[in-house]
Amino acid sequence: MSEASPRERIVDAALQLLSEGGQDAVSTRAVSAAAGVQPPTIYRLFGDKDGLLDAIALQGFADYLKSKTEAPPSADPVDDLRRGWDQHVELGLANPALYLLMNTRAARSPAMLAAEEILADRVNRVAEAGRLRVPESLAASLIQAAGAGTTLSLINAPNPTLSTTAREAVLAAITTDPPTARTPGPASAATTLRAALPELNALTDNEKALMREWLDRITSQTR
Q: Which domains does the chain have, with CATH numbers?
């Protein structure tokens, strides 16, 4: 096994300090001592402390996802949203200092952007299945806001029923039941077509933009 690089040692040391003492414990002096490097090495590799904090948040999030050995998408995309919600809450409760770092940075961290991309993909699958009752961007924003609020509340005060109750309330607000033999309503049909717009080669970019505006209007007014 090859020896860890200075960058790897710094990130590992910073993550350990974060876990043990929170963000205040991640000082340049403490990290350099724990990693066995000189302070200038941190600035050379990460630019400044903000760059280091972004790097450890992204690495911590990536390590968590890897540890979960995420299963492939299931047959029910709404169940995948449930699983994603539960993993989000679990991350916060298992690594509260890391979670707070990801959510309290002034700028949107790379870790949060990675999490948003995963969520957007899952929401898109629900839309393509014709089971989304609101626009994709609104659905993702509701899940993100409610999930973060629930997780932060649980970090401060455990409640065995809060996560499930909040999760199901959000899913009920943004999704529909599985399609039946009857014809779906206009909002569901519009949302499904909206999700497929990027793949429609028969329309020009301007036509797609106009179609997107029409479909968003149908979705927002027909519920």
A: 48-221 (1.10.357)
